[in-house]
Design a protein that fits this description.
Elements lengths: L1 E6 L2 E6 L6 H8 L18 E4 L2 E4 L12 E3 L11 H8 L9 H14 L5 H7 L9 H14 L2
Parallel strand pairs: 1-5
Antiparallel strand pairs: 1-2, 3-4, 3-5
Amino acid sequence: MNIELKVNGSLMRADVDDDTPLLWVLRDTLKLKGTKYGCGIGQCGACTVIADGEATRSCSLAATAAVGIEITTIEGLSPDGGQFVQAAWQDHRVPQCGYCQSGMIMAVTALLSKTLFPTDDEIDREITNICRCGTYDRIRAAIHAAANNRS
């Protein structure tokens, strides 16, 4: 099936099976490799993108269901990694292995688009992505810094 997706502000076409997850269309068809495969069941968050303003696990969303939705991937945040959440991640040295980071940054960007200064409880409730390296203290500090330094 031929579909048209709006990804990072551009219309892109893909020929996919009805049940192909958005994750694989982004990575394999559109060659946007920043969105990572983690668990494949929507629990870890490595594949998180922003879909119409909401953090969305792309492994659990059929690409055909994403037609008409504004999709933003990590590549769409900034050409140079200078978006305010990305900058906070760098300033607070959040990544260790880095595998979960694009999904984590997308989830945080979605949260900060709705909540200017999230509390620790709001962060715990909204950011459910898993970091196997356990950099949660740095993640929380980076989220608060990003909230204070957005531009």
